Amino acid sequence: MAETLWQEIETAYMRKGRYYHILQHLENMLGQLEEVKHLIRDWEVALFSLFYHDIIYKALRKDNEEKSAELAEKRMAWLGVAPTAIGACVEQILATKGHGISPSADTNYFTDADLSILGAEAGAYDAYARDVRKEYAVYPDIVYKPGRRKVLEHFLAMERIYKTDYFFERLEERARENLRREVEGKS
Fold first, then answer.
1. Which of 9, 43, 113, 117 has the fewest CB atoms inside 10 Å of its own CB, making it the most exposed?
2. Helix runs in 96-140, H state only
3. Rounded to an integer, what is the distance from CA 171 to the centroid of its chain?
4. 146 Cβ partners below 8 Å, 6+ apart?
5. Is 0.85 surpassed by the pTM of this model?
6. pLDDT 10s per residue in the chain (187 long)?
7. What CATH code would you report for 2-183?
8. Which residues of 30-57 are buried (b: 16+ CB within 10 A; e: fewer)?
């Protein structure tokens, strides 16, 4: 059963047209989450959320998070996971759509780990920005650039990009530098 589910996850994250939302993204997030594992109340939910949060990812769709959450819900129910855990997983996946603050500390750690690339060293951030552009290659620059700018400015307008003190203290300043650099066209 686990092998069948992993095959589905691996196949999805290796689909043609994915350049950032790939298995390496999951690996990077896992590393970030492992650093705060002792602060996460439900590690198994965090892992389900990790594996399924971008399982459905198509640049032309606006409901990727909802579709990913639906699939996670089905797979977890199939495994007999408790409804409360399924609900927490769905919440975490849906939270990656807007990255707002959640009353759940686990969800905040999860979304912060998802955004950790924003606070990466400049070279890693620039590679991420190039990979995101490749994923959205279907859009010409005249459409992509204003949309991307809007996303970057959304994060810059947040009082805090990172909701948890752990990620805020480590990554906030560099994330803002990276975002400003990209907005200015220097990344």
1. 43
2. 105-114, 122-135
3. 15
4. none
5. yes
6. 789 999 999 999 999 999 999 999 999 999 999 999 999 999 999 999 999 999 999 988 999 999 999 999 999 999 999 999 999 999 999 999 989 999 999 999 999 999 999 999 999 999 999 999 999 999 999 999 999 999 999 999 999 999 999 999 999 999 999 999 999 987 6
7. 1.10.3210.10
8. bebbeebeeebebeebbebbbbbbbbbb
